[in-house]
Each structure stands twice: as structure tokens, then as C-alpha cells.
Amino acid sequence: MSNQRRRESREPTQVQRLFRQLVREWLWISLLLLPLTALLSLSSQSTGNRAGAALVSVCLVACVLGLLLLRPRLALWTTVGGMSLALLISAVLGARGWWWSPMASVLGIMFGYLIWNWRRLSVVLAYFGWELARLDAEPKVFPERRRASYTGSDRLQGQIMALEQAMSRTRDTRRFIADGLEYLPVATMISDPQGKLLLGNRKARELFGHGLAGGDVLEHLGQLGYPGLEHGAHHRLSTLPLVEFRDIRERSLRLERAPLLPVDGDAPIGWLLSLTDLSAEREAEEQRSVMLRFLSHDLRAPHSAILALLDVQRHQAGGDNPLFDQIERQVRRALDLTEGFVQLAKAESEAYQFQPTLFAMLVLDVFDQALPIAQAKRIQLVHEIEDEEAMVRADQSLLTRALFNLLENAIKYSSPDSCISLQVHCTSGWLICNVADQGKGIGAEELPDLFSQYRRFSSAQGVDGIGLGLSMVKAVVDHHEGKIECHSVVGKGTTFSLRFPLLEE
User: Fold this and answer.
1) Is 417 exposed, middle or buried (CB count within 10 Å of its CB: 0-12, 13-18, 19+)?
2) Over the stretch 360-408, which tens digit does the pLDDT of each residue have?
3) Distance from C-alpha of 332 to C-alpha of 298, rounded to nearest angstrom
4) Mean pLDDT of 92-108
5) Are 291 and 270 in the same domain?
6) Residue 377 DSSP code
7) Shared domain check, 496 and 378
């Protein structure tokens, strides 16, 4: 993109191309006017040195034509001055006894001025038409006013009318953008390349507590408590680290910055800055962490105490008591529910710690955890890893837990003496992990709601569970930018297919 911008910046603009074309045309017109001026001067000079008179006429007209080219804003005064100079030269030479006719010079200058203005007007009209066509080709930001069509024959009037309409649309667009910035829900500021503020919207003024236009961005951020800007520390806006910080009012703010680039270059003409208030999100995260700590520790403690008391009572009673067994089942169900909710909450949070990970290592770890459960049901676990060096970007603890949930479900819903396989292979930048069992299977009508929370299906009858395991797996896979699919046939088994992007070397 930057190379394309550099090429575009080196290419001549439409104005430059039109002006160069005008200069070339003017040179050809001058080459025609000057010989005509000489012929006219020779025909009007009946006495004296005719060649000298023609030379004076040609030189005078050539000087005026050159000045018209160099000074377009002074074209009229240059023309009047040239004609006046021709008359003055004729009068001076006549007073000295040498007649020189100024008619050729006056006519040459006058025709040159008329032709010059005609060509310049044509170029301006061509440029207007080109710019208006470009403006019409631009994508429309909002519904525009209906344009009135021009039915006259005057091209200049038509172009002026079209230009007026284009300027009106431009003003509407600028007003639309200004109003859009003003009422954005995020504090937004625009500065020049040096960091001088040009615009600050309503949210930005409320955040800083005062007007912003004309001030320095870094100075305002330092007053707000931005790290690294205390005590007037010197920084450049383009290299300022973008961090989340707490301001002097204990608000959690995050600074974001984007350069404003022109169409024909890659040097920023300004900066777009935004300060996002994350106080509500951070407070919610803190409350979530408190809740998870409560569920993980405080809520487990009484359940563990109940289980310990049950063991003591069983030992003292010296036999099996159906009531004790029922209490234990309900307490363990409550513990499983708490554990499932905690795992789901962690999976749906944003506090993932990603790092390069060997997927084969996770598979072996999961197999070590699931093997005792499988052996208790006489279920064989088989794994096949095609590429043991395949790496993914993963949160190891959460992804391991998600894989374990899949294997645990496969074991729960498989009959004894069956087989569960886990296959891993890589293709087209993806790591694919398939977990297949020979269990009861899931009906096709139930597959769309498979990853919903607290859903129990007909195939789960007689099997303990709370319906949170697959929801947790789906959340973990989504946070790893992966995909999960399920293929199942009732009575034959279920296959879960997980896809994760491979870590590029």
C-alpha cells in the first residue's frame, strides 16, 4: 500500500497535466501569431525600415505573450500595458522622425489575450468536469439532495451550477462527519502531525473537563494521568506507547491512535485519537473474579465438610445407609455443577494466556487424565498423531480442560468394551483433531442445540451430567479462533472435529 502511495505521489496530478498541455498549445499558438504579426507589420509599414518595424512588433508581442504565460493573474494588466507601450513607442519614434505603425502589435497582443483566455477557460472547464466526475464516482456516505438538472446551452453556466451543487454536497458531508464525530460514544480527538488539537468531540470534552481545541495532546494526556507523561516528560505523539491506564479519577481508559493519510501520499497529515472508558467492563471483570473465587473456594468448603461428615457417620453406623448415599450423590452433583459453572465462566472470560504450544503434549496430558476413567469402564483409548511437532497458539490449561471434557463425555456415553479414538493431522494451515466414540449417538434434530447451556438430550438418559461441558468446549475453541463440528449417528457413535490455526514458523 505504501509503495502504491509513493507511485501515486510521483505521478503528475490532473492539474499539472492540464497545465502542461496548455503550455504546449500556447507555444504552438505563439508560433502562429508571431509570423502573422510580422506580416501585418510589413503590410502596414509603407515607408522607412520595414524589417526593423516588423522586428519591433514581433519582439513586443512575444514579450507580452510570454508574460501572459508566466502571470495568468495579471493577464489583463499585462495586455493593457503592452498595448499602451506599443502606442508610446510609436509616439516616441514618430517624434524622432521615424514612423512605426503600432497596429500590428496592438492586434497581436489583443488576439493573444483573447486566445489565451479562451484556452484557459477551456482548461478550467475540463478540470471542473473531471473533478465533478470524480466526486460523483466517490461512494455516498449518506442520502444526498436531489440535483437540479441544467437545461441551458451555456457550458460555463452549467459547470458553475454543477460546481455549486458539488460544494453544497461537500458542505453537507463535512457537516455530517462533524456531527458524527461530535456524538460518537467514545472520546475522539483529531490533531495535526505535531500533536496540536484541532477537534475534540463532546465525550472528549466531558472526559477532560474543558475545551480542547488549540491545546497539546500530550499535555492534556499528562494532566489526565497518562503513564510516562508525568512531570512534563517529552514524547512524540507518533511513538507514544498505547496502554490502558487509570486516570486521576480512577477511570480505566485505553488510548488508541490512527494516522490520517492523504490520498496521494503516506505521510500523516494528522492523527485520530480515541480514549475508551473501560471502567464498567473492568468492574464487571472484578465482580466476575470475586464470584469465581467464591464458587471455587467458599462454596466448595461446606460441600467438602458435608462429605467428610458423611464418611464419619458411615464409619460410626457400621453399614450402608441409603440416605447417606443419596445425600452424597446430591452433594457431589452440586460440586460438579459448581465446577462446571466455574470452568464455563473461565472459558467465556477474556483472561486467556496464549503461548506457543505443542498440541501433542496436550493430547498426552489429556490421555493421562482420562485413562483411569476409561479403564473403569473397560474402554480402550487410542490416539494417532500425524505431526508431533505441530504447534498452536493456545491457553494450555483451558484447551487441555476442553479436550478432557470431550474425552470424558465420550467415555460417559460409550458402552463398556468399546473404543474411543483421537486423531490429529494437519492440512492447509489448520490442525484438525477428531474425537470419535462408539456410543449412543445424538439425533439429527438435537444437533443444532448441542452447545447450548444446561441442555440434556435423550441420549443422555441414565448418565450423570449438568449440560455445561460442551458449552465450555465451544467457548474455548472460539477464543482460540478455531471451529468445532459434530457428526453423529444414533446407535453408532459420535465424532467431534476441532480445527485450530497452525502457528506459523
Assistant:
1) exposed
2) 999 999 999 899 889 988 999 998 988 888 899 998 888 998 899 889 8
3) 16
4) 82
5) no
6) T
7) yes
Amino acid of residue 190: I
Environment class of 252 (CB within 10 Å of its CB; exposed 0-12, middle 13-18, buried 19+)? middle
CB 117 within 8 A of CB 75: yes
Domain enclosing residue 480, as ranges: 355-501
Residue 216, all three cell numbers: 497539546
Residues 6+ apart with CB under 8 A from 180: none
Within a domain: residue 390? yes
In the predicted model, what is the mean pLDDT of residues 415-428? 90
pTM, two decimal places: 0.48
CA distances, 118 to each of 22, 41, 122, 123 (Å): 11, 25, 6, 9
pLDDT score of 500 more than 90: yes
- Encoded amino acid at 203, one letter: K
Q: Are residues 360 and 473 in the same domain?
A: yes
Q: What confidence score (pLDDT) does residue 8 get?
A: 47
Same domain, yes or no: 492 and 425: yes
How many structural domains does the chain have? 4
Q: Which three cell numbers stand for residue 442?
A: 445424538
* 261/237 Cα distance (integer angstroms): 15
Residue 225 domain-assigned (yes or no): yes
Let me know whether 23 and 116 are in one domain: yes
Q: Does residue 383 share a domain with residue 343?
A: no
